[in-house]
Amino acid sequence: MTTSLLTHPSHSHKQLNSLISNTRKQMIDSALTSGFSSPETVQISQLLDHYLNLEQKQRNRSSQL
């Protein structure tokens, strides 16, 4: 696993981003279905949003070089 992360960083980034997106979606879905959204859930989803935005900016910057 470690070697594949080192040899294919973009692939691992895609997997990580996919995992984060899915986690965020599941959190929001469960909050909506239960009719309950804790402050922690909101904070975590905002952090995940922030991470995904940073990743997107980094990818855009990399593709421009």
TrEMBL record:
Molecular function GO labels: protein dimerization activity
Xref: InterPro entries: HLH_DNA-bd_sf, Spo0E-like, Spo0E-like_sf
Pfam families, per the entry: SpoOE-like (PF09388)
UniProt GO BP: regulation of sporulation
Region described as Disordered: 1-21
Full protein name: Aspartyl-phosphate phosphatase Spo0E family protein
